[in-house]
Amino acid sequence: MHALVERLYPLCRSITGDGVRATLDIVGEHLELEVHEVPTGTQVLDWTVPREWNIRDAYVKDPSGTRVVDFRRSNLHVVGYSVPVSAVMTLDELRPHLHTLPEQPGLVPYRTSYYAETWGFCLSQDTLDGMGPGPYEVVIDSTLADGHLTYAEHVVRGRTDEEVLISCHVCHPSLANDNLAGIAVATALAGRLREPRHTYRFLFAPGTIGAITWLARNRERTGRVRHGLTLACAGDPGALTYKRSRRGDAPIDRVMTAVLRDRPHTVVDFAPYGYDERQFCSPGFNLPVGSLTRTPYAGYPEYHTSGDDVGFVSPEAMADTLDALWAAVQVLERDGRYQNLSPYGEPQLGRRGLYGSLGGRSDTKQAQMAMLWVLNLSDGDHGLLDIAQRSGLPFGAVAEAAGALEGAGLLKRVGEGG
Amino acid sequence: MHALVERLYPLCRSITGDGVRATLDIVGEHLELEVHEVPTGTQVLDWTVPREWNIRDAYVKDPSGTRVVDFRRSNLHVVGYSVPVSAVMTLDELRPHLHTLPEQPGLVPYRTSYYAETWGFCLSQDTLDGMGPGPYEVVIDSTLADGHLTYAEHVVRGRTDEEVLISCHVCHPSLANDNLAGIAVATALAGRLREPRHTYRFLFAPGTIGAITWLARNRERTGRVRHGLTLACAGDPGALTYKRSRRGDAPIDRVMTAVLRDRPHTVVDFAPYGYDERQFCSPGFNLPVGSLTRTPYAGYPEYHTSGDDVGFVSPEAMADTLDALWAAVQVLERDGRYQNLSPYGEPQLGRRGLYGSLGGRSDTKQAQMAMLWVLNLSDGDHGLLDIAQRSGLPFGAVAEAAGALEGAGLLKRVGEGG
Amino acid sequence: MHALVERLYPLCRSITGDGVRATLDIVGEHLELEVHEVPTGTQVLDWTVPREWNIRDAYVKDPSGTRVVDFRRSNLHVVGYSVPVSAVMTLDELRPHLHTLPEQPGLVPYRTSYYAETWGFCLSQDTLDGMGPGPYEVVIDSTLADGHLTYAEHVVRGRTDEEVLISCHVCHPSLANDNLAGIAVATALAGRLREPRHTYRFLFAPGTIGAITWLARNRERTGRVRHGLTLACAGDPGALTYKRSRRGDAPIDRVMTAVLRDRPHTVVDFAPYGYDERQFCSPGFNLPVGSLTRTPYAGYPEYHTSGDDVGFVSPEAMADTLDALWAAVQVLERDGRYQNLSPYGEPQLGRRGLYGSLGGRSDTKQAQMAMLWVLNLSDGDHGLLDIAQRSGLPFGAVAEAAGALEGAGLLKRVGEGG
């Protein structure tokens, strides 16, 4: 996963343009992607697909001919969606177009201006402090023209049409945690799935406008989304954070809470700010989509700065995120509501070889406890995750007990968990 | 407000009589009052309006001719509703009619006997300890005769018939916190209201029998009471206390809890003891009426003693009570449920000038967060107070966001808050 | 109660056989019992009544003729339901049939093997460590043959058919806390009941198979069980423990929680392990049956060992268990929902002699507070236990207030509590 992050890092992504296409090409080497190109001007919900932005070069050259700000060194140096510029300006004239982080003087900020026509450069405060009065040659060799918005889907067909939506944004330039780590973990998760019960849909799309475009073009499909996660900031050193869906009690909320219980983690309530859960959880859709991150949105000093580089994300952290996701997939795949077919009194497990025969001992095993719990709560109202939570037993033990009891004809699956 | 307390303090109020009339006359200098006179013998719910009590003088004169207990010095010295007496008695004979507070020997207690025909004097234990064997001249120059029970209403008409009931009792003699401060704060609040949405009804009535009389004569009107508060003990040095309505989850309960959140305060559950919330919250009416006090009923040593004098209440405390009430009025007036008219995805706020156009910054302002929260939760089920509480944003910011969004055609009011 | 425990202690009980019959004979000296004999082979729910087991003698005799393990010294020495044996074996051959507690080397464990045909001896690790290589004479003089399963009921008829089920198991041999103390406390409780409102059914039956047999033969009657408790481990030095019914919010759960509130105690959620609440709370029946113990199932080191002897249970502990049960019976008998017949405003209690007539005092008595609470919450929705809990008043005070108000014509009983 870390190699994928390193490879994607130099590309200049934005909400449209060739950077997104190049990114999807690389992801497409790992996963079969369906790539969608949506023309500029297309109405998508309350929004319109904007003009496509591409950039070749940009710099601020001082009187000695030195590029003091240089797009080639880092694509963060240009405000995203900057219109073309070619001018000579004094520092005073240039100043309103320069963005720095005075409190983090060594870092370059990340700025965009998608929907207001402007241009600008981002640089460290240290660089700015060293700049003389000029004049400066100021060039942004960009184009802002009719074109397309690009996004991609990877679908792992399941035995049912019920979908699990995993979404990550692909519109940030050289920022590793936000969101190349998310792209890498989603790619790895997709690669692991084999003949699942649910259909898993991975969405690689630009933030906000990409999610809105997907929603606009898939309105009828949203009814199939049973569970969903936006995935971002998946590789920083912090603990995992799950942000609940707007519903707050959706199955995915309970699953993620259960999966994270035994790891360092935080669970926070939904708020209409953050990543594309904002769109999926808008009140008209109100999809059961939560958000999984490590340190959440805007919660670390490197957030949206040049400090969010490939060294900021670690293979270990991404593996931990993937592991938690995999555990969640296990629960989503195996959870279900069952009916005890012998609900009057306990069935005689010993006769069926399901119970140790020598009574009177207090060291009854976890497997036997799991069978008793599954039998007791399988009244059609409780799913296996419910039973795991109420009993304090691991979900896996409960799922195995259900399997054994189903095999013995004592249990019948009657519906989804949750 | 403190000047009003000082002016009302010397009057000898009881549940009937000229002291109540004189009190309402003075309040009537500040507010337009409708004064009601209800004849003795009138059946009111399970009760009957009692005879009217008036008193001119009362004393216990020692053998030297000195008034050792003197109604003219403090009207607390006579047990309320004492029948007339004119006798010469030894201390031993008088003793069963004398009430003191042995544990607060310097204070005179407050006692009444409305519904059992008797008489008595209240005095400090110190005074009693200094009294010789007598004989004493014992005089209570009172009358207990057919007359009227007096109460008054002040109504601020609103744009709707939905009423907010603010009730305070006017039956206590020289006790400043209980309840002259309540009368003063209610009077000040009434004077502040200008063309409100709700109709505000201020009730100045004797405790218990006055509230019961009002309820008996306004049975059909009680259905209009959407929110209510009994107001008492509004000027002591303690923190504010809100006692929930019997319902426990009425809008007024949520409003007061929200308003008090950022002040020192206590919130307590309903109990069928205290002030006239007992009557408003009797199970047949079960009105959404809570109780606002500072230190609650019987919770301070000066309670129902001569220690509850004009020095015990402060202008600052009364101003703080009024301020909290005013904040509650703001919420009652501005709360409401709205419908997001663009609920699929977020509407594009930038295009409508509602959003800062330079993205990528993490210091999104409170106003923008408030807009996102209002949009996200305006599904017809959540009121603005709900949204303020769930988001942790100030109610005012949320209400302003709703106004801006309504102005932009993105929101429509669909009902009351709460 | 302790004398009963001492008398029952030496009998060799199992899930069938003469030990159970002798136990019920002794209980029958205190209570009128209906004894049921259910033939071997009878189908009971998912189970079959097993063959009857009886034992006369058993021992392991060493080469010197000494009985190193001797059933006559303690019936725990033989694994319950051991088939007959008569053999000479070396220690190595005998070893697989010997059960000890290596971590409690001085104690003899309790073991059974009801449904797998085998035999064995239980002994202390200390005894085993002192045994030479043999050969040993090994004898179990038992019979395992068609016969009956025996259980008994004692019923105290109430004024209604609604039943309270008190169940205790009678299948353990010489174990005092588990469950002779339970039998003794149940017997004492039954003896105390006089013309109750509910019908009380006491069930003395072997664990698991006995409860299953009763359920199989009384399916239609289970609908009458309004409240129930399994009673076990009633005499150890630990604090009382109440385990909630599977429903978790049944009236018995609320009653027991209230009754235990002012004693050292623990309340735990239902789990499908423990005593016969497992059967009563199986999902098909889901009866409102909780479990009352002192230290719970398997929670003390003496559990299922020779350490659980008559010295382990105390008269004081059994009296405390009985006292808590008796308090619960008081609530079950006296709880109810009432309707305030004068619900508009407070009724005038003073006129009816129900209220102190001298007002203005803050030391209103508990009895008067109880009346106000009962009047306020008697809207048909709240029972007296609800009112006691919400007011913080003792249940007895609330029940007395309800009685006084009913006597004054202010209240009418409209239904069960809970």
From TrEMBL, chains A, B, C:
Record-linked Gene3D superfamilies: 3.50.30.90, Winged helix-like DNA-binding domain superfamily/Winged helix DNA-binding domain, Zn peptidases
Residue ranges occupied by any DUF4910 domain in the UniProt entry: 2-335
Bound cofactor: record note: Binds 1 zinc ion per subunit.
Limits of the DUF2172 domain: 52-143
Coiled-coil intervals: none
UCP01524 winged helix-turn-helix domain ranges (all copies): 338-412
Record's protein name: Aminopeptidase-like protein
Species assigned in the record: Nonomuraea fuscirosea
